[in-house]
Amino acid sequence: MAPTQEQVTAALATVIDPEIRRPITDLDMVKNIEIAPDGAVRVGVYLTVSGCPMKDTITRDVKTAVAKVGGVTDVQVELDVMSTEQRKTLQTKLRGNRGPEKEIPFNQPGSLTRVFAVASGKGGVGKSSVTVNLAAAMASSGLKVGIVDADIYGHSIPRMLGAAERPTKVEDMIMPPSAHDIKVISVGMFKPEGNTPVVWRGPMLDRALHQFLADVYWGDLDVLLLDLPPGTGDIAISVAQRLPSAEILVVTTPQQAAAEVAERAGSIAAQTHQQIAGVIENMSWLPCPHCDERVAVFGEGGGQTVADALTRTLGARVPLLGQVPIDLRLREGGDEGKPLVLTDPDSPAAAELRKIAAGLSKRSSSLKGMQLGLAPNRS
């Protein structure tokens, strides 16, 4: 007996668009369904843009879902491309019918996304590695996570996450690629092939950051992490202006010279009135391969020094969130696009990063900033 239209539609409702992360039936991507008496099914699917990089994935998922319906003997998928009007309708739907204005969703009163700006005083302290592994740990725990690679000159997040796809544009909206269930955007995804440097002045950096926040369709994120460039330059100032509610995570290494520079990076919060979520000490020690004793390759105490100094400067407690030991696999995972917290979650470095991520994922039940929908009683 041939399947019904309702059965095939129900099956298609289980197919999730790999970029937008919503059922294709909700996105009006199903063009038509034809069912022959012998059970052969032909499904027409609209792609958002011509040459959509996810077309093979969508085709495969549609075939797999429909083939499971009882009575189906064959599945054919025909791809078409949305018209300009259809894309505009989709854009409006994704933005919650708010129209085409380019606002930063994380600044809206009802936003529940927690935003962390990961900062360091200098390069080479493993800030990007920490960012990627925190994001991967949070995503593996079931949270919806995104990363903005805000280190425009030194962008490295796509490689560390293994995010090889380029973003797709739907009208003036950008669909970010995903890797390890993490949505990610980086200027490196828009460059021509090769390791071409980005040569931009301050205003262009600010414009790029705004586009990453406002033009990208992030969906309903639980956590957004921004991998900032080292120091307190243009991007750090732009983040404070564009995302005033962002909390700062300071990454340092144990040596005092690095701690002094990291303290300056965190002290920007005194001027921007941002909250510091805490300090993470990376490369804290090296487990001896022979006796398993801790070898303090880069000295000791830098993370606590930064936390204590920022506590005095800001007048509010800044905690040391954790100390991540040196692990060659952490570096190797970054080169291979495979975060250590996923490949070896029980290793000492991964366990510490997962502990930090779990602590940061906890949200208080405060109603600050929430619209309660209350009105005065005028009776």
Automatic annotation (TrEMBL):
* Keywords of the record: ATP-binding, Hydrolase, Iron, Iron-sulfur, Metal-binding, Nucleotide-binding
**Residues involved in ATP binding:** G121, K122, G123, G124, V125, G126, K127, S128
Give residue ranges for domain MIP18 family-like: 6-78
InterPro entries referenced in this protein's UniProt entry, alphabetically? FSCA_dom_sf, MIP18-like, Mrp-like_CS, Mrp/NBP35_ATP-bd, NUBPL-like, P-loop_NTPase, YlxH/NBP35
One GO MF term: ATP binding
What functional role does this protein have? Binds and transfers iron-sulfur (Fe-S) clusters to target apoproteins. Can hydrolyze ATP.
Per the record, the similarity remark reads: In the N-terminal section; belongs to the MIP18 family.
Describe the subunit structure: Homodimer.
Entry protein name: Iron-sulfur cluster carrier protein
